Amino acid sequence: MTDRPEDPPAADDPPAADGLGALADRLARFAAARRWQPFHTPKNLAAALSVEAGELLEIFQWLTPEQAAAVMDDPESAHRVRDEVADVLAYLVQFCTVLGVDPLAALADKIDRNELRFPVPEPPADS
Amino acid sequence: MTDRPEDPPAADDPPAADGLGALADRLARFAAARRWQPFHTPKNLAAALSVEAGELLEIFQWLTPEQAAAVMDDPESAHRVRDEVADVLAYLVQFCTVLGVDPLAALADKIDRNELRFPVPEPPADS
Amino acid sequence: MTDRPEDPPAADDPPAADGLGALADRLARFAAARRWQPFHTPKNLAAALSVEAGELLEIFQWLTPEQAAAVMDDPESAHRVRDEVADVLAYLVQFCTVLGVDPLAALADKIDRNELRFPVPEPPADS
Amino acid sequence: MTDRPEDPPAADDPPAADGLGALADRLARFAAARRWQPFHTPKNLAAALSVEAGELLEIFQWLTPEQAAAVMDDPESAHRVRDEVADVLAYLVQFCTVLGVDPLAALADKIDRNELRFPVPEPPADS
Questions:
Q1: Rounded-to-5 percentages of helix, strand, coil across chain B
Q2: At what angle do helices C103-117 and C75-99 cross, to 10 degrees?
Q3: Please, are residues B70 and B82 in contact by the beta-carbon 8 Å criterion?
Q4: Angle at A88 between CA C93 and CA C71, to 5 degrees
Q5: Distance between CA B10 and CA A120 in Å, rounded?
Q6: C-alpha to C-alpha distance for D111 and C111, rounded to whole angstroms
Q7: CB D41, CB C65: distance < 8 Å
Q8: pLDDT in tens, chain D (127 residues)
C-alpha cells in the first residue's frame, strides 16, 4: 500500500491545502472523530458512491439538453449539482483511502492506456 | 464560470502534473482531439458516471466483508478496482469541466457544512 | 412489436386485474392523461429506473446483514421498501411499453438460457 | 408475510405459467438448486438490481433520442435490451421474494397514491 492518498504531506511539500490528498485526509479524520469507520467498508462505500451518482443523475433525468446545459444558471439547482458532485467525490475518495488506491494515479494510468486504445485520427493528406 | 478546474496553471505555479486540474485538462484535450465533445453533454456524462459507479459496485456485489477487504490482494481484481475508480473519476471530472464546477471546492464546502451538521460528540466529563 | 404488454386483454381472458399487463396499461393511461409521454423516452426511463434502483439500495447501504433482513419489521422502512420497489417496477414497465418489450417473456427466456449456462451440479454417486 | 409472491398457485387457479408469480417461483427454485441463497441477501440483491439497471442505462448513454427510439430495430441491441430488462426484473423479483414483498400490489398501491397526488388537469370549460 505505497499509494495511500491520505499520507500526510512532508514538511517541504507545497501546501496544496485544497488538493485531493488533503481532502482525503480531512474525510478520514471526519469519519474517525465520529467513529464511522466500521460502516466505511469497501462494499458499503461502493454502494454509497453508486447511490450518490444516481442522485446526481436524478437532477437531469427529465431535462432537455438545453435545460441540462443551463442547470448552473439557477442558484438552487447549481447548489444541488455541487452538493451531489461533492458527495460522489467524497465516497470515491473514502473508498480509495480504505483500499489504498491512489485515484489520481489510477486516472493518469487510464488516460495513458486510452491514448493507445483510441488513437487520434490522422487528418486527410491533402488538408 | 470562474471556477473552471481546467484553467491552465500560471507560470510560477508548482508543476502538479498529476493534480486533478491537470488531469481535467488532459481529459478535455483527449475528448477534443477525438471530437467527442458533442456526446459529452452534462446529462450523458451524469449517466456515464452512474453506469461506471455501478461497474465498481459490481466487483463487490456478492463478496463477503472479508473478501471485499482483500480485493486489492489479487492483482487482477486490484487492476479492475483501479480501472473502475479511474472511469468514475474521469466522468466526474469531465462533468465538472463541462458545467464549470470545481470538484475540490465543492467537496471542501461540503465537509465544512458537514462539520456543522454532525458535531463530534463530547467525551464524558470524567474521561 | 408483437409483444407489447399493454395490448388490451381479449374478452375471454381471465381478469388478472392486478397482473403486470394490467398495471402497464394503467401506467400508460396515467402518463397519457397527464401528457407526460414526451418525457418518457427510452433513455429518460432507463435513467429514471437506475435512479430509483439507487434509492432502493440507499435504504440498505449502511445496514448490517441482520438489520437488512429485518427491514420489513419496521412499518416505516417497510413502506419505504415497497414504495421504491413500486418505483423501480413502474419505470421498468414503462420502459418496456415504450420499446415494445414483454418483460415476462424476456425473463422467461433468460431463465431458460441460465438453466443451460449454470447446470445443477450432480450429487455424488454414492449419496 | 402474507403477500409472498412465490406461494404455489392453488389447484383451481388459472395456469398463468408466465405470470410474475410463476417466474418468481422459477427463480427461487433456480437459486435453491444451485445453493445460491446465502448470497441472495436483501442488500446484495438491491446492489445487483442497481448494477443491472446501470447496464441497461449503458446501452443508451451516448445515443441521440432518435437512436434510442430505434434501439429495437437492430437485432443485436434488441437482444441486449431484453437481456438487461430480464436481469433487472429477475433481481427485483428475487429481492421481493426474500423480503416477502408483493411487487404487483406495491405498484398498484403506488399508482393509487399517484392518482391522488397528480390529479389530471381539467380541460378548459369551452372545449
A1: 65, 0, 35
A2: 100
A3: no
A4: 55
A5: 28
A6: 29
A7: yes
A8: 344 444 444 444 444 556 999 999 999 999 999 999 999 999 999 999 999 999 999 999 999 989 999 999 999 999 999 999 999 999 999 999 999 999 999 999 999 999 999 999 877 776 5
Measure the CA–CA gap between D95 and D103, rounded to whole angstroms.
10
Those residues whose C-beta lies under 8 Å from the C-beta of residue A31, and which sit 6 or more positions away, are: A37, A40, A94
Give pLDDT tens digits for C10-57.
Answer: 444 444 556 999 999 999 999 999 999 999 999 999 999 999 999 999
Is pLDDT at B33 greater than 60 in this prediction? yes
- Cβ contacts of A50 on chain C, cutoff 8 Å: 54, 57
CB contact residues (below 8 A), chain C span 59-98, against chain A: 60-62
Interface membership of D54 toward A (CB under 8 Å):
yes
Task: Name which of C85, C12, D119, D57 is nearest B52 in CA terms.
Answer: D57
Do the Cβ atoms of A83 and B93 come within 8 Å? Answer: no
Give the pLDDT of residue B12: 46
B to D CB pairs, distance under 8 Å: 35
pTM: 0.87
- Which three-class secondary structure state does DSSP give residue D27? helix
Kindly determine whether residue A20 and residue B20, on different chains, have CB atoms separated by under 8 Å: yes
Question: In the numeric block, which cell numbers belong to residue B11?
Answer: 507560470
For residues C27 and B107, what is the distance between their CA atoms, to the nearest angstrom? 40
Q: What residue in B sits closest to D48 (Cα-Cα)?
A: B61
Polymer length of chain D: 127
Average pLDDT over residues A59-88: 97
Task: Measure the N-to-C terminal CA separation of chain C; round to a whole number of Å.
Answer: 50
Q: Which residue is listed with cell 471556477? A: B3
What are the phi and psi torsion angles at C5 (to 5°)?
-75, -10
Alpha-carbon distance of D75 to D50, in angstroms, equals 25
Tell me if residue D92 falls in helix, strand or coil.
helix
Question: Would the pLDDT of A47 be above 90?
Answer: yes
Using a CB-CB distance cutoff of 8 angstroms, which residues of chain D are in contact with residue B61? 44, 47-48, 51
- Its ipTM equals 0.85
D72-83: b (≥16 Cβ within 10 Å) or e: beeeebeebbbb
The span from the CA of A86 to the CA of D37, in Å, is: 37
B111 interaction partners in chain A (CB closer than 8 Å): 23, 26-27, 30, 90
Give the pLDDT score at B121.
Answer: 80
